[in-house]
Structure formats: structure tokens, C-alpha cells
């Protein structure tokens, strides 16, 4: 019996060892390569966009993956991705991590793993000042948003009688609002705040305090890469503790930034 | 927007329009558009010639193969071909293929199919007697094709080639779908950042495409004249 237990323990140990070895493959590959390849957006102001002067990709998402790369002691390599290409790129193994304003959804979590939430926003509306008091004022109206986004689906759910018009991008939606073709624009508040800050007659518009959905952003990692996922999560918690996460938030969305947002009670915690 | 056009947005971003993130990042903008167009032009000229000659081969298998390839490609929108290549090429090659090359391969495949029909028509347009005369001097059928028929045929094909190439230059704008930062993609990025200057930005982009295409047609008209004079 004793002998059986010993053999059993030995087998479990070897299996466990193999498991960890396999799981840490990606992390090792990154260290060996000396570079973390991150998929980021290159035309989403605040999160990932090309700076006018330096022509480099910068933003909130970029600063997060840069910190992770520094902690790993490797270089950061940025690869621009779109909403359509980011998940296939990760699954194919062309990138190690996605930091591209990606909302954590149950559907996406079936294909990839998400880190702890590193940015939290909600879906709101831009309307003409004083026209909207509550959600009821929006129902039955024409609402503009962007094609293929989660915003489109959320709006249809929250406002069943409204006509949802999907534009190719947000500048077009803003133009439609100004020309009176739509009554309101809806998407994540972080994007709306930026839109509003650029509008030529911004004092005529406002973002009322009506939120129709939570949008927690997570970093995407290939399924099964537990070593990398744990490292990223650990780094995120450290960044929150050291105040670096708040510093990055203030840099891009603080009161002195072009698109001030409220971080409120949000903190990076060990959530699902 | 109500105050008329403001083209300063073009000048403040002019370097980005021309070369993208180069030299600290990959080449982009107008330079990348030209690169994609030129490489794809050269490759699809070769591809088109090859596929076209396959189409007039005496070997039935080769001829049918060319017809099958032609019909598959002609039956798909270019956007599909690019998307297809994007996921198919890495699986086929077993390694990472850069997005630029994905687009170049897709454009080459797509344009070659159309070019092959021009080649076929051009070769068939040369009187049969030319081939017969060439063969009677003891030339091998391949030599007859490359020294006698093709040189005459190609001259007649130039206008159709130009047509196809110009349309391909404009098709490079579809590369944005896989995140290649050519001219249109770069313009979209700038538009998303500045938000209120879409008219100015896309007017500029339209002018640039026109200049590139017009320069190309002018060049080929000059080439055509030179070749005609030699004839």
C-alpha cells in the first residue's frame, strides 16, 4: 500500500510538472524572444492611437502592456489590430496579448482568457442639452452608433422601440447628430467623452447620467497560457497597489487630459 | 465645419500621410500604397502571363486547370480574397506572413486572373500566319510564342493592362481590412483622432489617388508611343 502511494505521488508529481512546463511555454517564449508582442488599436484616441508629433502608437492600453513588458524585462512590440482581427491574431499566436479596448463578454471568454478588469466604463449617450431626463425620453427616437460593436446590441435591448442607425465610425455618427439625422449617439462613455471634446459646438451637447450597460475591459490572452495570465494578473494588482494604474488613468483621462473621465470607485481587483 | 474648410490638419499630419510610423515603426501611408501597388503590378504581370498562356495551351489538363482557377477567383469579391489569404496563407506556409505580403498575394492572385484574359485575347488576336511562318523557319513552338507572337501581342495589350493596373492601385485601399496602414487606413486613423475634418482629409486622399493613377497612365501612354514608333 505504501509503495502504491509513493508511486502514485511520483506519477502525480511528474504529471504536475509536465503541466506547469507546458503552461509556461508562452511566458518562456516571450522571455527567450526578448519581446512581448501586443495587439493594440491604432485609431482609438485615449487608448491606442498614433501621436501627431512622434508618430508612435500611444495610449492607456499601450502604457499597460509597456509596464507588463518592463516587469518581464523584455522589449515591447506593438502590432495594430482591429476589432475583427484581434481574436484570430491571438489564437493564431501572432500576438501574445490583446490590449485593444476589448469588453469582457461570456461569449468571447469561450475562445480566449481575460485578465482582471483594467478599465471600467459604461455605455451612455450624447444628446442635445436639456432634451433627455431619463431613458424613456430616448425610446422611439433615432439613435446612432458604430457597426459591429457591442453598443449596437445593448442599445437595441435597452430601447426596443428606437431606430438604431449604425455608422462606419464615430466621426460619421457625430456628423449625423449635428445635422439632426439622429437624436442621440450611444457607445462607451470613454469614446463619447472624446467625441464631445472635439465637437465644434460642444456646449450645446451633454452626456446625461444614463447608463445602459457595464463595459469592463480586459487584456486578452490565449486559452491555456496560465503562466502568462497569472503574471499579467499579478502585475495588474501590483500596478493598482503602487498607484501606477491610477497614474496612467490620470495621464489619459484625468481632469487635465483632453477627455476627462471619472475613475470613481474603480480599482483593479482579482475579479473574474 | 460650419466655418468652411480648414486644411491645417493635412499639414500637421503630412509626414504621417507619406510614410506612416517609419522609421521607428513599419512603413505606411502613401509610400506603402506605392510599394503594394508596384510589387503587386510586377507579380501579377508575371502571373497573368503565366495563367493566360496556360489558357491557350494545347494540353487539355493545363487549359482546364487555368479555367478552374480563373472562375474561382473571378467569382469572389477582392475583399474575400484578402480575408481568405489572411487566414489561409499562414496555415499553408506554416509561419507568420506579414499583412503587407498577405495583401500583395491577394492582389496578385486577383489581378492575375483578369490579366490572363487580356493575355489570351492579345495572343489570339495575332494572325495565325505569324505562328505558322515562325514554325516553318524551324523555331520551336515556345520560341515562336516568345519571339514572334508575344512581343506583337503585348503591344496591343498595353491599354488593357493599364486599365487593370490602375484599378489595382485603387484596390490597395482594401488592405485596411487586415490592418495594413496604407493611405486609406492612415486617413481613417487621423480622422478618428481629429474627428471634425473628414471632408478635408478624404478630399486630400482622393487627390493623392488621382495623382498616382494619372501619373501611371501618363507613363504608360508615353511607353505605348515609344513602342509604336519602334514598330
Q: How is the biggest beta sheet of chain B arranged?
A: none
**Could you state the order of secondary-structure elements of chain A as H and E?**
HHEEEEHEHEHEEHEHEHEEHH
Work out the strand percent of chain A. 15-25%
What are the secondary-structure elements of chain B, in order, as H or E? HHHHHHHHHH
The helix/strand class of chain A is alpha/beta
Distance between the termini of chain B: 56 Å
The helix count of chain A comes to 10
If you average the pLDDT of chain A, what whole number results? 88
Shape of chain B: elongated
- Given the structure, what is the number of helices of chain B? 10
CATH fold-level topology of the largest domain in chain A: D-Maltodextrin-Binding Protein, domain 2
Uncertain regions spanning at least 5 consecutive residues of chain A: 18-24
- Specify the oligomeric state: heterodimer
The tally of strands of chain B reads: 0
- Computed over alpha carbons, the radius of gyration of chain B is 21 Å
CATH class type of the largest domain in chain A: Alpha Beta
Shape summary of chain A: globular
Proportion of helical residues of chain A: 40-55%
CATH fold node name of chain B: MetI-like fold
- What gap, in angstroms, lies between the N and C termini of chain A? 42 Å
